[in-house]
Structure formats: structure tokens, C-alpha cells
């Protein structure tokens, strides 16, 4: 009787289904069950089934209308797969779909299992993680938490990180790895790789060495995808993901003394090329945020694609410039020099643990100010403005946004001749929203005098924007 009962299981189809101690509604409640819970059938009595719940290790009775009986024989596997196909893209039914996927894996023969099942399982697990990350208020929180427990009981593991004061849920992508190991379509493989390489699911606690290894792995996995024959939407998503990963690698390579400058340039150039390969006319509304995200990541590291200054020994030129030297372990020191002041007698010196892009240095015509790109994080680039004041030289740091570092860059776009003004472009993500702005700042205070979301709306931008900036920036996408 027990062996026969294991060939048929009951899958709970309704959230908050009560399992009672006796086959009647007035009986005490043993436990509350949710969609996707799998129950062993031990008998039936009237409108109730006698079942055993292995997740809670409880026996009891549940109304037959709250469950669906499913065969675990190979003959019943196609029916289970049909339900999984239906639930794959049904929001709110992720736990139920995961329960059916688990039942299919128990019923199907090994030779019949391919990438399709794990593609669906991964898609449902990802959607459940997104729902958990985006939950607001208290409505439905208990049900969502219970559905996460149901998924975990079926082997779907989640990782959690704290981001922006909220908990980020991420699926561990075990199903997506299986898609890459089993027969699967090109589209299924592409979706699996996109899930495996998500930026938001990179653990913030990784050490620099661990992050460097992970990003190298992400780049390798992405480069293995054959994009021929893929829908344009998937090709765009792959290009955007590659752009973000290679931009991060460019920054990380620049931080390592054992990596040649040519390798840094190669990574940044690859990021720029991937960004340029995106077909903007085929971007969907859902991909607009991903496009902005990729653009900011590339923009933050774009100076890595420029040739590295080879002469940083302190030989002075006729104009205001910078020279670079090593400070304490991990530090880079920036020396402001001119025709009369070398490194050993610099106008001003400041050291930082960030990556300094010396090729970005731009002085004004009067030689009284200089802008420099400095990148403390792979997704965050600041602008240093060296200025000559009544008490001598100093430096002011202009961040992309006043909030804590997340995603953004601010860059020099030109000097306005004859007046103490500087043009800058900002590309930031603030409170989950993307914003690009073009601003005219007073160079002595860095206060914003005018700003617009299009440089054509500012006459000073039209007249005095730096040609080199216009040719290489991604803010004009």
C-alpha cells in the first residue's frame, strides 16, 4: 500500500490550505500549506485525503479540492511537463511551478530530461527572487515567505544581500548551470548565461581577488555564447551584460600592478565595443533600465580605453599637468606640475587608493585650474578639480551624486574661456532611477549655475564643449 501510494502524490494548489487532524472542517488545524507543497497520500475519507507532509513532518487530512493528484510514473511525466510549461511564465505561481518541476524530475526517465525543464525551473526561481526583493509593506509578506520555504524544500536555494537598506534575494542559479550541461536550445543557453552573470547578484562582501576571479569567469561564460540565430532582444541583452562585465574588468585590471596597460585598454575597448553593438531600435521597454545601467558602467571606466601616459617621472612641460607616483602600498599620488614645478617641488600633491586616469587631465587656458578623472569603485567615478586660490593650490572632489556610492560618474566636458566656469556631464542611478544631466558649474565653488537633460539646451555647451569629450563620452547615447 505504501509503495503504491508513492506513485501518486498530491500537490497543493491553493495558498493557506489547512491540514487538519481529522477529516472535517471543525477539526484542529495541524499546519498551513501553500502552493507547491508535495504530500504523500495515505488514504481518503469523504471529501478529505489522508496525507503526510514531509516538509513539516506532520500527518493529517486536507480537502481534496485544495490539491491535485499527480502520477510519478514515466507515463505521467509528459503531463507534469505540460503544467510546468504553462506555469513558467505565470506570475505569482512560482512555488506551484517549482513543485511541478520537482515532481517531473521524480517521474521522468533520465534520458528524457533536457535543458527545457531546468530553463523553466530557473525562470520561476528568478521571478520568485525578484518578488521577494521587491516586496513592499506587509501585505502578502507571510505568503511570500512561505512560498520561499516551499521552494527551498524542493532544493531551490536563495542567497540574500543587503543593498540600499533592503534585502536583495538572488537565486543560486543551480538550474541555469544544468541548462549549460544538458542539451538545450541557443535561446535557453543565452538566458541561462544572463542569469548566471547578473550584476545585482554579485556578493558585495567579495574580496578584490575573489571579485576579479568572478568577473573573469563571467566574461568567459558570456563569450562562449553563440549569438548567431538568437532573437535581437537576446543579442542586445548579451551585449549590455558583456559591456558591464568588461567595464568592471578594466577597472580591476587597472588596480593590479601585474597586469599590463595593454590588457587594461583591451578590456575597456571591449566594453565600449559591446555597448556600441546594442541595436537601440530593438530595445524593449523592459530593457531601457538595463541599457542605462550598462552605459553608466562603461562610462565610469571609459578612460581605461585611452592610452596611458608613459611619462610620469616629473618632467615638466609648458602647461599645467599632472604626474603620477606610488605612495604607500596601494596608493597613487597625484602631483600638480607645470613648467617651473616638478614632482619634487609640485604645486600640490594628493594621494588616493582610487584609480587615477592621468590621461583625463584637462587644464584651463589660464593655467589656474585642472580637471582629473578618479575612480574609487568600478561603478563610481569622481572628478577632481585642482584650483588656485588666494592661499595657494587646493583640490575639490566632485562626486556623481551626494548619496552613497552606487552607480554613476561625473566627467569634465569643457572649460568656458575667460570666466570661472566648467562644463560637466553626470550619469547616475539615484533611488532606482537613472538620470543624465549636463551642467555649468562655477569652478571656484563647483556650484551648479545651469543644468539640462540635453546639452543642446545650454548655449555654453554648444559653444565650448571639449571636442575630445564629445567624441568619446557615452553620456550622449
CA-CA gap between termini: 68 Å
Q: Please bin the fraction of helical residues.
A: 25-40%
Q: The biggest beta sheet, please?
A: 8 strands, mixed
How many helices? 13
Overall SS class: alpha+beta
Total separate domains: 3
Q: Quick one: overall form?
A: elongated
Average pLDDT, all residues: 92
Summed up, what is this model?
This protein is α+β, with helices and mostly antiparallel strands and 477 residues long. It contains 13 helices and 20 strands.
Keywords:
single chain, 477 residues, alpha+beta, SH3 type barrels, 8-stranded mixed β-sheet, 5-stranded antiparallel β-sheet, 13 helices, elongated
Describe the protein in words.
This protein has 477 residues and is an alpha+beta fold. The protein folds into three domains: 2-71, SH3 type barrels (Roll), CATH 2.30.30.40; 197-308; 321-472, no CATH class. Helix content is 34%, strand content 29%. The chain has 13 helices and 20 strands. It has helices at residues 2-5, 77-87, 94-107, 115-134, 141-153, 174-181, 186-196, 208-223, 232-255, 261-276, 288-301, 459-464, 467-472; strands at residues 8-12, 17-20, 29-33, 38-45, 48-53, 58-63, 67-71, 158-163, 166-171, 321-326, 332-337, 348-352, 355-363, 369-377, 380-389, 392-398, 407-416, 421-430, 433-442, 448-452. Strands 13, 14, 15, 16, 17, 18, 19 and 20 form an eight-stranded mixed beta sheet that branches. The chain has a five-stranded antiparallel beta sheet with strand order 6-5-4-1-7. Strand 10 (321-326) and strand 11 form a beta hairpin. It starts with a helix and ends in a 5-residue tail after the last helix. Residues 1-5 and 311-317 have low confidence and may be disordered.
Amino acid at each position: 500500500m505504501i509503495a503504491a501510494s508513492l506513485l501518486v502524490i498530491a500537490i497543493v494548489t491553493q495558498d493557506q490550505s489547512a491540514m487538519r487532524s481529522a477529516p472535517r472542517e471543525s477539526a484542529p488545524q495541524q499546519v498551513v500549506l501553500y502552493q507547491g507543497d508535495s504530500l504523500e497520500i495515505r488514504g481518503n475519507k469523504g471529501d478529505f485525503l489522508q496525507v503526510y507532509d514531509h516538509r513539516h513532518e506532520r500527518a493529517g487530512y486536507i480537502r481534496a479540492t485544495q490539491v491535485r493528484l499527480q502520477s510519478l510514473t514515466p507515463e505521467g511525466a509528459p503531463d507534469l511537463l505540460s503544467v510546468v510549461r504553462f506555469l513558467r511564465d505565470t506570475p505569482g505561481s512560482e512555488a506551484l511551478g517549482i513543485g511541478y518541476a520537482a515532481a517531473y524530475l521524480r517521474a521522468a526517465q533520465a534520458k528524457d530530461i533536457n535543458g527545457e525543464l531546468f530553463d523553466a525551473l530557473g525562470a520561476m526561481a528568478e521571478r520568485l527572487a525578484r518578488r521577494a526583493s521587491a516586496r513592499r509593506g506587509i501585505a502578502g509578506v507571510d505568503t511570500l515567505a512561505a512560498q520561499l520555504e516551499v521552494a527551498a524544500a524542493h532544493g531551490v536555494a536563495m542567497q540574500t544581500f543587503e543593498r540600499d537598506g533592503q534585502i536583495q534575494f538572488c537565486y543560486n542559479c543551480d538550474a541555469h548551470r544544468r541548462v549549460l550541461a544538458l542539451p538545450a536550445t541557443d535561446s535557453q543557453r543565452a538566458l541561462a548565461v544572463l542569469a548566471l552573470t547578473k550584476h545585482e547578484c554579485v556578493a558585495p562582501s567579495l574580496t578584490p581577488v575573489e571579485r576579479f576571479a568572478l568577473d573573469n569567469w563571467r566574461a568567459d561564460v558570456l563569450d562562449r555564447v553563440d549569438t548567431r540565430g538568437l532573437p535581437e532582444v537576446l543579442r542586445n541583452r548579451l551585449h549590455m551584460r558583456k559591456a558591464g562585465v568588461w567595464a568592471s574588468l578594466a577597472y580591476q585590471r587597472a588596480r593590479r600592478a601585474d597586469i599590463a596597460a595593454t590588457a587594461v585598454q583591451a578590456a575597456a575597448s571591449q566594453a565600449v565595443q559591446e555597448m556600441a553593438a546594442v541595436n537601440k531600435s530593438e530595445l524593449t521597454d523592459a530593457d531601457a533600465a538595463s541599457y542605462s545601467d550598462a552605459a553608466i558602467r562603461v562610462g565610469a571606466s571609459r578612460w581605461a580605453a585611452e592610452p596611458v601616459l608613459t611619462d610620469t617621472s616629473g618632467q615638466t612641460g609648458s602647461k599645467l599637468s599632472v604626474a603620477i607616483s606610488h605612495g604607500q602600498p596601494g596608493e597613487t599620488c597625484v602631483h600638480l606640475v607645470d613648467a617651473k614645478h616638478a614632482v619634487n617641488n609640485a604645486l600640490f600633491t594628493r594621494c588616493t587608493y582610487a584609480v587615477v586616469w592621468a590621461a583625463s587631465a584637462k587644464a584651463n587656458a589660464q593655467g589656474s585650474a585642472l580637471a582629473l578623472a578618479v575612480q574609487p569603485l568600478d561603478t563610481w567615478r569622481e572628478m577632481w578639480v585642482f584650483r588656485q586660490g588666494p592661499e595657494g593650490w587646493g583640490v575639490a572632489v566632485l562626486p556623481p551624486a551626494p548619496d552613497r556610492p552606487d552607480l554613476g560618474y561625473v566627467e569634465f566636458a569643457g572649460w568656458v574661456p575667460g570666466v570661472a566656469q566648467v562644463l560637466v556631464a553626470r550619469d547616475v542611478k539615484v533611488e532606482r532611477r537613472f538620470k543624465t544631466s549636463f551642467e555649468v558649474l562655477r569652478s571656484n565653488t563647483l556650484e551648479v549655475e545651469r543644468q539640462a537633460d540635453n546639452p543642446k539646451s545650454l548655449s555654453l555647451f554648444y559653444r565650448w564643449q571639449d571636442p575630445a569629450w564629445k567624441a568619446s563620452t557615452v553620456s550622449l547615447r
